[in-house]
Amino acid sequence: MNSPESPGRAWDTRARNRARRLERAASLANGRNVAPENIVALLEAVIEPGDRLCVEGNNQKQADFLSRALTKTDPSRVRDLHLVQSVLALPEHVDIIESGQVSRIDFSFSGPQAGRLARLVESGRITIGAIHTYLELFARYFVDLTPQVALVAAQAADREGNLYTGPNTEDTPAIVEATAFKGGIVIAQVNEIVDNLPRVDIPADWVDFTVAAPTPHYVEPLFTRDPALITETQVLTAMIAIKGLYAEYGITRLNHGIGFDTAAIELLLPTYAADLGLKGKICTHWALNPHPTLIPAIEAGFVQSVHSFGSEVGMERYVAARPDVFFIGPDGSMRSNRAFCQAAGHYACDLFIGSTLQLDLNGNSSTATKGRIAGFGGAPNMGADARGRRHASQAWLRAGREGRGDNPMPRGQKLVAQIVETFREHMEPAFVERLDAWDLAESAGMDLPPVMIYGEDLTHVITEEGIANLLLCRTREEREQAIRGVAGYTPVGMARDRRAVENLRDRGIIRRPEDLGIDARLATRDLLAARNIKDLVHASGGLYDPPKKFRNW
């Protein structure tokens, strides 16, 4: 054994490697500042073959200028990369794979690039390590997937290199901290370089280079749902959710997934839920992006607090004007943080409700379907029982009693609901005997099928047929019939055992709208607190400024 003083293994290889990278790049920068025309050369100088590379690009804020620059690098120099990033959202994220410069990816969500990614996987041109949840990928940044180089985006930098992220802080702290404190290189594209920042979100000594991008970084208005597109079926399922789930359990702390199904719930709070006397009793504290469809509920006094993963385009002035509700910095703009909000959604919320593309007879769900590897972002963390949770609430304890029966040790359970129409786009059934995820796992050589929410975590299924409470099922056969019982006229639903389903209905495990006292004829768009984007603008007092593509007036 070598003593600390004896020659032997070097313990500063990362630091020396980092120094060599910085030395190669020194002539291409003025201190920390890099001219846009030098960025491709700088990337070629600091990135080494085989590097783990993180390009910040979650489902909202995108380091788009740096992504484009990466595609212009010399493939003979920048190669064999291992991408470790939340989202493959931009075409450039997949272009760099198609150019043969990436050998492996670990990610969370691919959204609009889901089809291209599936084709690359099927042709064997890329290896997927795993499709992670956001929080899971962040965790691995600090264990075995630490980036050697991180390309991030910020609103502004000052002359010293401090970064201001504004309302879209999102993934930046997690990426930068992991990279900067493990000998990595951090490069930030910013919209502008200024003398004084409104606030410092990332300190300068965590950042190696800043570049003022020719155009502001792209932000996707991912959470905007036009109420004009909400159907009366979605109004009905929203009524079922509010009366059969939210009111039943007294759910105050929650997270909603993206989609028109949950947007309908948000828009029914000031109308239908208020008429049921539920104001102050449900939906008071949220882990949620600032959904425009939540504006009427906020204005009606339903919502007390919202912590956000990121911001939403057009909501900046409205959010800043509601500091009692949102988390606002001393500069007057929102502070978001995806890692903290994911943790809040997992541990501090009693309910997650979202939608899916496929749900099987065990309650497993996935958004990965044939020809499309979309990933699932944060839903698996939100939609999983937090076994480390140690604080109680009325909703959590009741779910635990229902699900665990006469367990001598009191313990609760998180409520996890899937709200779906029995048929999705192009009349594809949402309920299937077998998830496409199994075939995708086989074709991609993955160890696990990409399941979004495991059946053991799913507690409720809501469709236009009614609500199934899986917590009350005592056998696997009962659970299967409960799911079939709300699957409508899909092949899965048509194969139900009618007697078993009626038995489950008699026991309150399946409840139809009429069992809940809901008259389906009243499920009309008249119940929506806002029926179009313009209504949302009016509800905000003119503070909400929707993107142009959502304006039709």
Radius of gyration equals: 25 Å
Output the number of helix runs.
Answer: 19
Largest sheet: 9 strands, mixed
Q: Tell me the quaternary state.
A: single chain
Please state the average pLDDT score.
Answer: 95
What's the overall geometry? Answer: globular
- Low-confidence segments, ≥5 residues, pLDDT <50? none
Percent of residues in beta strands:
5-15%
Helix-and-strand structural type = alpha/beta
Percent helix range: 25-40%
Amino-to-carboxy terminus distance: 77 Å
How many beta-strand elements? 19
Describe how the helices and strands are arranged.
Elements: H1 13-25, E1 33-34, H2 39-46, E2 52-55, H3 64-71, E3 81-84, H4 91-98, E4 102-107, H5 114-122, E5 127-131, H6 134-141, E6 149-158, E7 163-164, H7 172-180, E8 185-194, E9 209-212, H8 232-249, E10 253-256, H9 260-275, E11 285-287, H10 295-299, E12 305-307, H11 316-320, H12 338-347, E13 351-354, E14 358-359, E15 365-366, H13 379-382, H14 394-404, E16 415-419, H15 437-444, E17 460-463, E18 466-469, H16 476-485, H17 491-494, H18 498-506, E19 510-511, H19 533-539
Helix pairs in contact: 1-2, 3-4, 8-9, 16-18
